[in-house]
Amino acid sequence: MSPGVSLASGFGRVACAAVAVMAACVARAETVELTFANWAAAEGTTRPAIEQVIKDFEAAHPDIRIKSEAISFTEIARQLVLRVRSGNPPDVAQVAGNDTILVALTGKLEPLDSFVTGDVKAALKPGSLDALRYKNQLIAFPWTQAPAGLWYDKALLQKAGLDPENPPKTIDALMNALAAVKRSQPDVIPLGLDTTNRPFAMQSNWPWMQTFGATPIGEGARGADTPQMKAYLTWMRELAQKGYIDPGRKIGEFRPLAAQDKVAFLWDQVLLQGVIQSANKMSDADFYKRWGVTALPTGPSGKSYTFEGGHQLVMFADSKHKQAAWTFIQYLATSPAALRAYTLGPGASLPPLAKLPDAELARKLDTPVIDAFATKIIPTISPPPFGASFASGSTAVMAGVQQAVTGTEPIDAIAKSIQQQLAK
Amino acid sequence: MAAGRRPPGAEPWLDWMVLPTVGVLAVVVGYPVVYTLVLSAQHYNFLEPEPARFIGAANYAQLVADRIFWQALGNTAIYTFGSVLAAALLGLVLALLVETYASPRMRLVRALLLTPWAVPFVVTAFLFRYMYLQNGGVVNAVLLHAGIVRAPVAWLNNASLALPSVMVANVWTMTPFFFLLLSAALAGIPNEVIESARVDRARGMSMIVGIKLPFLRSALLVGSLLMVISNFNDFAKIWATTQGGPGYATTTLVVYVYRLAFENFQFGYASAMGVVWLLLLMGFAVAYLRALRLR
Q1: Pairwise CA distance, residues A169 & A175, whole Å
Q2: Per-domain residue ranges for chain B?
Q3: Which among B48, B86, B33 has a CA at the least distance from the CA of B281?
Q4: Which ipTM was obtained for this model?
Q5: Using beta carbons and an 8 Å cutoff, which residues of B are at the interface with A?
Q6: Assigned CATH topology for domain B46-294
Q7: What is the per-residue pLDDT across A364-389, written as a single tens digit (0 to 9) for each?
Q8: Entry pTM
Q9: Which of A23, A31, A60, A325 is deepest in the core (most CB within 10 A)?
């Protein structure tokens, strides 16, 4: 080979390598990375499912990479607010309940109205965007729906001499049932209620307060120093004094006990089925034979209430890849793959879609539990008055609930003390 | 005398050689303290898009009228001084026992006694939380089995029992510190002193009270000061066991400040509380050091 040919060949190779490097750089520049703050990846039950969904999404969208940041449910609002204030928010985040409004209060959420087009809107259940508006802007997109119901272990009810197909419909009937459970099975927790001091516990207890006619905070609230609130607190004290509840536990701490048949009634969200089955590997048929769910028993108000504890997805205004973020949000909430692997899988929640994309998915919702939620529970949804005052108010109200449940201070004094805190 | 030369024996007020240290301290200590002072005079809520605004002493006025603040202050005092006193006494007794019965086997006992100090505080908190469980907790199981109680006790969910229960966990963690400190101090007592006391027929309690305790005084004072400051700021154990509940029964200043700052995002008001907290600790430290110097 002549030196001239060799030189030309060398240049050729260098040129090819340069072009390859440039092409790789261009391809790399076109790939965007989205940070996704969520607690689905922080919880053992849902972690494999969300990781699978993310992997599927990346395979379907090779130009988008997802960096999942696992943050616990209790911590996520705090971390998101602090990250927004320090100029380092994620692109997309999973939020729920009062946390959604708290993060929106920072003014750093991207309004989603321009992304949620007519087609997307038409595919959703009617009204599913109503509670996600703040200052006339859509600030979140529904990912899952998870209302709460009164779950009951039919076998434990039967052991207590109760009719397992006829759960209590009033507070008085519930008290009789709890007494029967306590009498017959002293090692079983008759009623699982979250009495911790955190905004979620307030959200969980809000329907119980409402059925007593108590509305300590929110628009048109009567305050805490009212006969209705005192009736609710007195009832809570009675529950504790008779040993019907196990105070201080988070709702998540009752779930493993429920899976071991140690809880007769449990006030929990639709996702309980997934958690129990994940813990004790019970089949669907066995689960429906063992567990039932119904609406909250009615109190003096004569009405039943519940809360919608579903999860939402938000996009941050500082995101540099808003279109990619929206693609990801839409995929998580509405794609058949995500519905199959996550929402109707270990998430065991209801999808926000009015109609499911295929018959196999639709069959997954044809169960006695989903039927009970659709016919008896969802019509009783009454959203709590979310906002900044809900977060600070919940500290005062739940501290008062704990005082009623665990102490001997007169209920009148506790109600007055809560009101003083709320008035600050 | 040449200009700028110090008279012999005169101490410079500020030597340029210490300026780097002063600079570092100004950044890591001075700035946070000054910024906290500034924040304490502002209405500053992270959830409000509006910028912080100056409100003078309003946060301090609110603090004076805040019933929870006073309860938290009381709880802090009980938790801190109660735990330190109990742990110091226990540490002292254990140190004296191990010294009295010194033998090669005692080395193992000494190592075992130090174990709680090596356990991270959060682990200790969760350990005691599960031990105290009303249903399924080992404490109730033992007491029920021994016939001491007839029904499970709600250790952490009874407004009267919660604070003492958390203090027990705290004392368990802290006792090895005093044991170690006082064992070292006991080993430092000169043999001549012990021998001459024996010649004077000092034995048992008279030896401990008359000879050994005076030698332990400095160690006890310094150790107590360190532990008081550490307990005043103790967040992990209380948050992981009770989160300040039930009600406000175990809410200490640090827990209350955390709730205000990181749950309600009221940074201005939380800073005012932080300033009071800092002043209290500084006042205590100064008084304590003065007592140590007067000794």
Answers
A1: 11
A2: 46-294
A3: B33
A4: 0.75
A5: 45-49, 62, 66-68, 134-135, 151, 154, 156-160, 162, 242-249, 259, 262-266
A6: MetI-like fold (1.10.3720)
A7: 888 999 999 988 999 999 989 988 88
A8: 0.81
A9: A325
